[in-house]
Design brief:
Elements lengths: L3 H42 L8 H38 L4 H34 L11
């Protein structure tokens, strides 16, 4: 007769077999998008923004605030995630199975950090394409 732990382990293995191909496709898609962003960099470097009126107000006031706030929020989220991951790792020091699971979860933290970085790149790309990417009037 199988114990509850063995049944749970079998269910987790079945879930892993089901999810791994899907996660691999998602990973390949994000890698494709990430490398595609670098192909657009030469195009963005020759773009000259045509800014007037409301766009200037948006460019000078709102966009830098949103950009800075999202950067700080992303850094705080990654830092808190890293602290939580480290605490879980310290708590599980006596259990090798739990410790290996926690070490594997570090990959998700790295993936989340990459996704946050991609979101920032996409935000900057959209702003550049919209012609609001000229920050010459804004002092950092």
């Amino acid at each position: 007769m199988m114990s509850k732990l063995e049944k749970l382990n079998q269910k987790l293995l079945a879930l892993e077999v089901y999810l791994m191909p899907k996660l691999k496709k998602i990973k390949e898609f994000f890698l494709f998008v990430y490398t595609g962003m670098f192909l657009l960099l030469p195009v963005m470097s020759f773009a000259e923004p045509n800014v007037s009126g409301e766009a200037t107000k948006l460019q000078q006031n709102i966009i830098p605030v949103v950009k800075d706030a999202s950067l700080y929020l992303g850094v705080i989220l990654v830092f808190v995630g890293l602290i939580m991951w480290a605490i879980k790792l310290v708590v599980a020091h006596g259990n090798p199975h739990k410790r290996s699971e926690i070490l594997e979860s570090g990959g998700w933290l790295i993936a989340a950090t990459i996704v946050l970085g991609l979101i920032g790149i996409i935000f900057n790309l959209v702003i550049s394409i919209a012609g609001l990417g000229n920050y010459s009037k804004v002092q950092p």
